[in-house]
Amino acid sequence: MALPSLLLLPFLLAAASGNTPPIFNMTIVYVSEDRLIGDFAFRLTATDLDGDTLSYSISGADAFYFNVDQSTGVATVRNLLDRESQARLTLTVTVSDGINDATAKKLTVIVEDSNDNAPVFKGLPYETSVPENMPAGSIIYTISATDADTGNAAKVSYSILEVIPDNAKNFWLFYILPNGSVVLNGSLDYATNTFYQLKILAQDGGGPLYGATVVQNSTTYFSITVVDLPNLDPRFLNEPYSGSVSENSPLGVSVLTVTATDRDTGVNDEIFYSITNASVPFAINMTTGIITVSGWLDREQLPSEEVLLEVQAREKNLDIHGMVAKASTVVTILVVDVNDNKPEFYQCSLPSCDFTKSQSNFKGSIIEHSSSKVPVSNLSIVAHDPDKGINSTFELYLQGGSASAFSVSPTTIVGTGEVQILVQNPSEVDYEISHVMVVQLVANDTGNPVNCCSVATVTINLIDTNDHFPEFPQSVYVLSVMENSPEGTIIAPNITAYDPDSGAYGQITYQLLPDTILGTFTVNAMSGAVLVSKGASLDRETRSIYYANIQAKDGGGMMNTALLEISVLDENDNAPIITGSYFISVEEGQNVSTQVKAIDNDEPNTPNSELGFRILPGLFSNNFTINETTGQMHSKEPLDREALDDGDGQLVVTVEVYDHGVPPLSTQVNVTITVADINDNTPVFLEQSYEFSIFESSSNSFVGTVAATDADKTEINFRISFRLQSGNGSSNFLIRSHQLGTGNYSGQLSLDPDTTMDYDTLQQKSFYLLVVAENTATDIVRNASVPVVVHVLDVNDESPSIVPTSQTVTVSENGTQQGLVYTVSASDPDTNHSLVIEELQVTCLKNSTSAGDVCWDWFALLPNGSLLVNSSEIDFELCDTVKLMLRAEDLYTEKGDRYSKNGTLTINIKDINDNTPVFLPISETFVVVPEVSTVDLQVATVRATDVDSGLGGAITFSIFEVVFMEENGNNRTLENLFKVVTTGEQNNYVGSIQVASNLDVSLKGKYQVTVNAQDRTAPQNTAQTVLTIFTVDQSYRIRLQFSKPVEEVQSKLEEIKTSLTLATKATVYVVGISSPEDSRAARAQVKSVMDAYFVYSNGTALDVNELSQLIQSNTQALVQLVELGLAVIGSGEVTETNKETQMIGIIAGLAAFLVLFILIMTLVLILTTRSYKRKLNAMKALKVATTLSPTVAQQGAGIPGTNKYNAEGANPMLNLPMDLSHDLGFHEDTSSLASTNSLDENKVDSPKDNNPKAKPHKSHPTDPTEDKVLVAALDAKEPSKMAFINSTFSTTDL
């Protein structure tokens, strides 16, 4: 009994100590990164079964961030946290009860994200250049910003805050898409702005920070340089242009320079110059714009001293439209005068001089002995110098033999002036001395010594005085003139007298006397010709002879006379005169005869008085004849009254009576014949048929008017009455006759007041009537008839309708369709209508539920039913159906309702692929155990959704990148490790991340898997997310040894896993079940071994010590596992136990605790006989081991002869490290297995390669009380509950 009883020794010693160390129940805590210094972070909590006062502390590199209150365990923030720098902290937390050794444990602190990071722009600075003709809708640039936060706080959206310059005007010139693409929304113009700067806002989706929801944002500037294109014409600088140049300047002299620039300043094309107007004496340099003299310049020969040049500037290259870019300007050049002309003389009077031909000889006259300063008459001299200003000043003076008798005025002229020669010495002006005097007139330009002077010769004729009488050659002149001679008729061409005086005194004028004769005749005062006076009336029949005196008078007033006898000769100037009047009356159908009589007053028995007769052409001239000599007139046939248009029945024939003079004269007379009417004509309708229309139910009974005429000319004969021929609906109508004019009557057709026309009930819509026109003036009735059609017309009294009532059209979103997309159809049964379509209501729907008013301005409905796209912001994701309530209105409605019943136009918005897939938040942690992860095993899942429809909303997942992050901080990119399988769920898609190839079991760290989500139609949109898959490496594989064979363990595998899960709350991954290979295990009757991993959902795994403690702490699970054959946890040795002996040992131990205590003390005394000192050391080690928690003690070899470990983790005897594997720790002292370091054998074998060889010895029988002792010890001991924290994980403990 000694050796079996020794098994209970550690339990009894622990009980005797009376106190247990505290136990930590914490493995992981969460702290938000926005906690301020001094804020509460977390509370350390430990359990002490003895109720001792506990003291807390923390240590480790990450303890830098926290302070811990030793008494309460409250941890506060010591230094600010930053999840983006370090998302996971590892602390060594220690708790002490002041009695036992302090308990230490690793605690993981997960730093939770707060929205403390603003988006960060990538690829700064943002700047680009765009051509000014870039079309609207083009993407200019793509802005990209990232946010180090997670979740919504990492989702970045973009907007434009400001556009520089002129934000108010240019703000809508650009807009930015959700993906950061900046889009041009209008047109650019380099001439207006060459540069734009956009203030871009990047804003995250918001998240918690300091207890509130905060949205972080960042701004940056995006610079856009507008690239100039050649689209503008050049422009002249410093307009207007003017310059001056002296006349006679040599060729090539520079006048001025014009300068033009390309208004496309960014292009600055080369400019070429040219002068476009022809025949100008200037040229321009094609490249420099310098204008030079190219021809002879004579200011006096130019049309104007200012020369206007049309200068054109054109660019070297064509503009963007393929046209020549050009501009024009006007250059004014003043030609400056040079004194290069001498004065000249011209015979003209100002201001009518043209100065085209100068004169050097002039003539004038003056009466002899005229007074001083009297100018020479008949002298028109103008002196002119074409130069300008002072250059045109010149002097005048006289020279020659007669110069002393005259002077010149003025003596000085500037430019142009009239010149007079004045008498200076009257005594020298003597006709008897000389009839002619000559002087030289000199004009001297003193400023032009080279070409100074012009000389003109002036001849002056002297006028004599009167001293002779005029005389006629005859004293009597006999003349004749035809009567009726016109004014100015010459009777005698030259009756002249002679006067020997010279000049004016020798000039004779003529006059007729007495003055009464001047009304009939006159004489030419200079030539003496006798003429018929103005207004004279020479009529032989009134006066046949005239007498007058002709008087001759010279310039001095001396006169003489002669007699004139003038006879008036006859001419044919009297027309025949009609005698009597000619008015004749006759009934139609009879002939007419009469004689026309006349006389002539011209000289008898001459052709002038011989008469003839003829009928002049006219309406009725062909109906009559007349005798040419006697004037007897006859009608050719009986007369017809209706052939006459005259209302009185009169016809007029014009007869002309003429004489035989030269030229012959004639007189006309009208012969008026009145023809009496008789009733000999039948009425005639004006139209061959009539057609009228009336509206149904019309209150106006008037239908229409027929008209007929009767050719007879008297009322009794042309009166017409109308009636309706009976039959074919004539009883529905009435007709009344009305006179319109002579022989013209109308019949007003109207509806019988007792008759109502209803278009809808009438079988016939038209009536065919026969109207009769009658004349009953005589016994013989004369009548005519005409067909009349009367149509009954429909009245607009029906309501319109929209056909069909419900209409449907499909329109693509995002402005991909513009303009007319549909035309609403409507109809109206009325024959005359004008329909307009009205919009009554707009309903916006998304998935058949209301979407508010988001779509109200998307479409415009025109009155003609045309549906136009009115917005580029049509968004399927906001509204997929737009319903328009419509009605049609008939503008021509006369009666009834003008509106139709309401109709519906359903506009289905067609989705286009404009949305990027969005990953759904992931709340779970993904763990993979490489050793048990087979190909196609699912290790993680992602979910994403796309609000587009159809293939645009269908998502396909793919693996973009796999990076393995090792514990030492190194990263490796791996390929083909994982694959993704896409499946669909309601409203989203699931990507199953599966193992694609065998994983490396030796790697320690985690996989970062970047997954792409891409929709399935063009343009394809892609989103990414990064998954973290934690690995459980081979170091966490635990071997469990069973006393059952492999087959039985395999058959009860699910029960074993259930029990293990019950004890550990972890997922059990079984690597394999096999037979033991270790010989010691075989000796210990271990029949099978199972390798497994114990992994929690947060990625942490259990090691062998933690598994052992958890199983020991759960009695129910322990009993179940023992029943299922569990013998050893780890690689240690164990003897076979059975359930019965375990239960007996437990019961016996509990029942005889005090008795066993006495027995143990006795046994201790006996055992000291072999080696007291060594015995004493072993007992001390035992006491120390019982007071330490397994989590505090370092893992090392067992103390010889015990199931505990010392504080140093080594054999106290040899001070050597021991094998880390161990069993449940209760079989080291059994007689069935001798420890390699047993105190009983007093020798130790050194371990070799962690597989010490035990010295063969005899096995002792198994004590049946060992199982009892095991169970009793496990029930008495409450081990600390703990879990190993894998330092590579930074996930949430689920």
TrEMBL record:
Superkingdom classification of source: Eukaryota
Complex and partners: Part of the IMAC/intermicrovillar adhesion complex/intermicrovillar tip-link complex composed of ANKS4B, MYO7B, USH1C, CDHR2 and CDHR5. Interacts with MAST2. Interacts (via cytoplasmic domain) with USH1C and MYO7B; required for proper localization of CDHR2 to microvilli tips and its function in brush border differentiation.
Cellular compartment(s): Apical cell membrane; Cell junction; Cell projection, Microvillus membrane
Organism: Aythya fuligula (Tufted duck)
Region (Disordered): 1231-1269
Gene responsible for this protein: CDHR2
Role, per record: Intermicrovillar adhesion molecule that forms, via its extracellular domain, calcium-dependent heterophilic complexes with CDHR5 on adjacent microvilli. Thereby, controls the packing of microvilli at the apical membrane of epithelial cells. Through its cytoplasmic domain, interacts with microvillus cytoplasmic proteins to form the intermicrovillar adhesion complex/IMAC. This complex plays a central role in microvilli and epithelial brush border differentiation. May also play a role in cell-cell adhesion and contact inhibition in epithelial cells.
Biased composition regions of type Basic and acidic residues, renumbered to the chain: 1240-1252, 1260-1269
Annotated SUPFAM superfamilies: Cadherin-like
InterPro entries attached to this UniProt entry: Cadherin, Cadherin-like_dom, Cadherin-like_sf, Cadherin_CS
Domain Cadherin: 31-121, 122-236, 237-345, 358-472, 473-578, 578-685, 686-802, 803-919, 921-1047
UniProt-recorded name of the protein: Cadherin-related family member 2
